[in-house]
Every structure is written in C-alpha cells, then in structure tokens.
Description:
The protein has helices at residues 30-34, 84-96, 106-113, 119-129, 134-144, 147-174, 184-200, 205-209, 224-232, 275-287, 303-313, 347-356, 372-394, 398-416, 422-430; strands at residues 4-7, 14-22, 45-51, 54-64, 75-82, 100-101, 202-204, 212-217, 250-256, 259-265, 293-298, 317-322, 337-338, 368-370. It is of the alpha/beta class. The protein has three domains: 4-113, Probable tRNA modification gtpase trme, domain 1 (Gyrase A, domain 2); 147-201 and 368-430, Up-down Bundle (Four Helix Bundle (Hemerythrin (Met), subunit A)); 211-356, 3-Layer(aba) Sandwich (Rossmann fold), CATH 3.40.50. The strands form three sheets. It has a six-stranded mixed β-sheet with strand order 3-4-5-2-1-6. Strands 9-10-8-11-12-13 form a six-stranded mixed β-sheet, with helices on both faces. A two-stranded parallel sheet has the order 7-14. Helix 6 packs antiparallel against helix 7 and helix 13 (372-394) runs antiparallel to helix 14. It starts with a strand and ends in a 6-residue tail after the last helix. The relative contact order is 0.10. Mean pLDDT is 79; it is low at 236-248, 270-274 and 420-436.
Amino acid sequence: MSIVFALATPTAKSAICVFRVSGKGCLDAVEKIFNKPIQKHKTFCIRKLFHQDRVIDEVGVITFGGPNSYTGEDAFEVYGHGGLGVMSLIVEAFKGVGFEEAAPGEFTKRAFLNDKLSLNEAESVADIIESNNAEDVFLSSQSLAGDFTKKVIDFSKEIDFFRVRVEGEIDFSDEGEDFLDSMLVEDLGLLISNFELFVGACMNKKELSVKKKVLFIGPVNSGKSSVFNRLLGFERALVSSVPGTTRDLIESEVFYNNMSFYVSDSAGIRETEDLIEAKGIDLGISEVSKADVVVGIFDSSDEGVINKFRKISGERVFLAVYNKLDLSEADIKLFDCCVSAKTGEGFDHFKKVLGGAFINKDIGDYDYLVRERHIALFNKTICSLKSAEKRLLGKDAMELAAEDLRISRAYIGDVVGVKTSDSLLGDIFSSFCIGK
C-alpha cells in the first residue's frame, strides 16, 4: 500500500496541529523531511521540518516501527503549531516526498486489514468520536477495548465445535452406525440461551446516540426566548416586549456536562388574527410530538394555564418552569424549577433538572454499544441456531443442521470481520477423535 498522510486535528487555527503518516517506507523519508534521523521509536523528539530547503516549523515528532503502530505499518506523527499557513506548507512538504493524502477512515481501515483491530473495534473508533454523552463513550470503549470481540469470537468457536460434533454424527451414520450424542441438543440449547443473554446486554447505538430534543412552549411574553438565550449563553432568539415576536421555530444545540441536546424556541401560544403568527403557533404545537422533553415557560402561578400546556404536551416529559423570579415569587409546588432569565438565578438547577429528564434508568443493564448491522446479524445467527436445534430434535436432517450451523457461524463472523474457512474447519475436524 502507498504512504498516506492526513491532518488528525481540525482544519482551524489552534495551538497545535497533528499530522499522521503511515505506510511501508515512510520512515525512510524522515531524514529528508527533518534533515536529521530519529534515533529511537516511540520517543518524542524536537526537529526542524523543511520544505525546499527552508524551515517551515520546529515540530515534535514520534515514530513507530511496524507492526507496533496503530495501523500495523511503519508510521510517524508530527506535532506542529496550529496555523493555517503551517498546515498548508506541511501538506506541500509531504506531497513533495511522494506521500498521498489519506481517504476518510484510511488509518483505521489499514489497522483492520493488518489485524490490529477487529471490524467491530474499527467501528467503535468512529462511535467514540461521534459520542454525544458519557454512557455512549463508556459502552463504545468496552467494544474498542476488545471485550466485545472476545465474546463474539468465543461464541464463534462454540458454533464451530458444534458443527464438528454434528459432522461426526453424519460420518457415523454413513458407516451404518446408529449413534447420537445424547447431550448434543441440550448443549446447543444452552449455547442459544447464553447467546441470547449476550445479545440482550447489547444496546442499539441508534437508540442511545440520537440527540434528544427539547421544545420551549408557553404563553406569549412569558420570557421563553429570554430563557432560551440565557440557556445558550448568547442572544439566539429575538427578545421583545411586543406579544408574538417569535414567529418561527428557532433551534440550537446545547452541551451540558456530559451530554448534548437540541433546544427549540417556539411562538407563544394565544388566539391571534395574525396569519403569520398563527402559522408559527401551529408549527410549535406540531413540534411537540417530535420532542423528548417539553418545557413550559410561565410568568404566573396560574394552575389552569399550566395544566393547559401540560395537556398540549401529551405523553411527553413536561417540565413547568417559572420565569421572572427577579420580579415576584412563585408557588413552587406548581413548578419543577424557578428562574430569572434577566439575572440568571436558578439556571444551574434548571440545567440539572433538564439533564435529568434524559437519563435512561435502564442504561446500566447494558454492557456494549452495537450498530443496526450487528443487531441484524445477531438475529440471523439466533434464527439459524434455532433451526439447527429443531432439525437435531427431528434426528432426520443432520446435513441440514450442519448447514444451519455453518450459516450461523458466517453471520456471527461478519460482526467482527473474522471468518472460519471450510479448510480451517477441516483442520479442526481432523483433530477431533471419532474413533476412525
């Protein structure tokens, strides 16, 4: 494979920029780029980086000799100052010695092809980078650490072993012997049960990683937009004392502690003859069904008004928030929290309450984060294993049972990208004593 390079940090002005280079022969170019050899791998050193005999930057360099690198190939990393001009010149220097720009995911792809990562572990790298909250990170890290891969491979080996046992039964029947391993069906049932428990401990990434949505609703002039702006930390929504100022849905992303979510500000709900304002109100009401949490913003302790908006939110999680705490006190029994958009009072508590509304109480029941692809393959594996179990119970379709086991093994092998060929299965079978 060719020598590739890529910027591993964002293309933006920053304190440092990091470039990664990988490929057989890349270390031969180190002396040419830095005018000085690197004495020892995995040792951070300082070098001047040259291009066309001119110094670009004084950078940090660390080299890795294959297979002891992320990709399994010879590799090195460069840590330079994060100026756009510096980045551009480093790119030119690398191209000048024949390096090629890497495609998206190229380094992790090479790690997979060089058996440094399983396919699932490679996917987990992307999952960690895309993580929106702490639980997402922890579950993805479990997979990246290799525990998930080990479990899947262990189940693969068990399926291989059962196929060998079934092939042995077929071989005996060909010899005219009436023989059946009495524990075969029972053991296979236990394997299926254990595998289903394992699958049950896997959470679908789609369920966890989708960012939650918060919708602000409330009467006109209750201060929804002011609370919205205070939560964001800047004026995203237009604020005015004129009723009906917010006409459209305004959305921004909020990151709080270890999670992120979308917050939308809607038009104040009231009877109006203004067609544009009415459309904005209808839009806000229609968005309720798409929200995970509905936050009602109020400036009075009118229980009837609060219940009206609680009813509008339907089955969604509803939080009643009193605004304008700087002007008057509220009946705290009616509200989940009380704030002042003007002074910021109560917002720390509001953020905690809002974040708590997203907590999945059952998240601790899961051990691994998996993708839709994995779930589909697991279900197909279980289906094939149960088909093999049913055929074995019938005692008249051993060849088909063996084929079901082969298919189930192929499905589970696709999860981590490791397959067992029939030639390898033949080696396993040859080592299995059947008395011949």
